[in-house]
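[step 3/7] fold_predict: job queued, chain A
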Amino acid sequence: MKYESSSQFVDSLKETIPDVIVDDVDLVRGHNVDWTGKVEGCARFLLRPSSPAQLELILMLANRFQTPIHIQGGNTSLVGGATPIKSEFILTTSKLKRIRNFDSQLGRVTCEAGVTLSELSNYLKGTGYHFGVDLASRDSATIGGMISTNAGGIHFIRHGGLRDQVVSLDLITPAFGLVSASSQYLKDNTGIDVGRIAIGAEGTIGVVTSATLRLVPNTASSFTALIGVATFTEALDKLRFARQFASLTAAEFFTYDGVVLIEKALGASIPFRSRFYLLFQFDGGMSLGHELSEAFGDSDGDVAVATDSTASKKTLVST
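[step 4/7] structure written:
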C-alpha cells in the first residue's frame, strides 16, 4: 500500500511539474549522505521546486497520497539530522534563491529559503549592514534550514539565534497551503505568533519559503583576544568579566587537545600552550583593546590581542 501511494504521488508530479523530480542515483546520493559521510539514507527521489507555488503543489499531493517527505536545507548536519532514513523523497529548497526588499531605513532584508548564508553576506556588502548569525558552514547552510533549526552560530552571545533575527516569514503547510506568519511590526500581540512556533520546528509545522530578517549595523573596527587559563573555574571568571562589556560579540572555549588536532590538520601552531583557551571577539577601537589586554593580563595565563582581522590571523595563529 505504501509503494502504491508513492507511485501515485510520483505519477501526479510527473503529470503536473515533471521538472522538479530528480532520480539520478549520483545526484540523489549527495543528499542521502550527511556531511561526515557516516550516516546514509535510502531516498530514491529528490524534489527541487523552483518556486513557492511548486513547493505548495508538492506538499498538497504528498498530503493527498499520504506520502512522507524529508525536508532538507544545506545538508550541513554533523549528526545525521538532515539525512532521510525512512522517506523515499527528499525535498530541497536549494532552488529558491531570490533576495529582495532590502530596507536600509529599518535594516531588514527579505530572502527565500534556499539562499545560503554566504550569498546573503555577499549581497549585504557595501550596505552598512550584516546578518547577525554566522556559521562555519556558511557556504552551504541555507536561510530556510537555519530558521527550521533555530541555528545559533558564533555570535549568539551578542545577537541571539535565528529566532531573534526573524521579523516575519512565509511557510507552506500540507493542509492550509501558504501561510504568512508573524508581523512586519516589531511589537504585535494580536493572536498566536505562528512564525515563532515554526522557527526551530525542523519542518514539522511547514516548509519555510521566505523570511524577512533583521540586520545589524556594521561597526568601524573589532579586535580578538586569545586567553590561556589553567582551570575551568578561571575560564568562567574570564567569561563573566568579558560579558560586562556590551561590545562582546563572540566567545569560544576550547581545550589543548583540540588545539593539537587543529595544528595537525592545518600545519599551524598557536602562540602559547595552556590547558584551556578562551577566544573573545569585541567591537571597538584600539583603546578598548589595550584596556582589555591589560585587564586580562593581570591574572595568570597568556594573552594575545589583535586589533584588526589581519593581525588576528598573525597573532593568534603562527605558521
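[step 5/7] annotate
Confidence is low (pLDDT under 50) at residues 310-319.
The two ends are 61 Å apart (CA to CA).
exit 0
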